[in-house]
Design goal:
The structure is a single chain. By secondary structure, this protein is mainly alpha-helical. The chain has a single domain, classed as ACP-like (Non-ribosomal Peptide Synthetase Peptidyl Carrier Protein, Chain A). It is 58% helix and 0% strand. α1 crosses α4. The longest helix is centred in the N-terminal third of the chain and has 17 residues. This is Acyl carrier protein.
């Protein structure tokens, strides 16, 4: 249940802030947000700010890698892992 809640919050944030509600452009959970042109460098910074504020986690510089931030699945795993440690 927690995983689905995190996934839903991430999808809603990305849809509202990068797709402007156009859910027809929303990628699959494993698709690269960068390769699909949904996120760029500035978008990644904004996404990190959202993660820190929404989930109460700190994203360290060495954690800003594609495996953590480039797909809905990667983001979900990352948030769940960080929340478990916090």
């Amino acid at each position: 249940m927690v995983e689905q809640s995190v996934r839903t919050e991430l999808r809603e944030f990305i849809s509202a802030n990068y797709l402007f509600g156009d859910v027809s452009r929303f990628p699959g959970d494993e698709d690269s947000l960068l390769e699909r042109g949904i996120l760029d460098a500035a978008g990644v910074l904004e996404l990190i700010e959202f993660l820190e504020a929404q989930f109460g986690i700190e994203v360290c510089d060495d954690e800003t890698v594609l495996g953590n931030l480039d797909s809905i699945s990667g983001l979900t795993r990352f948030v769940l892992t960080k929340c478990a440690v916090a």
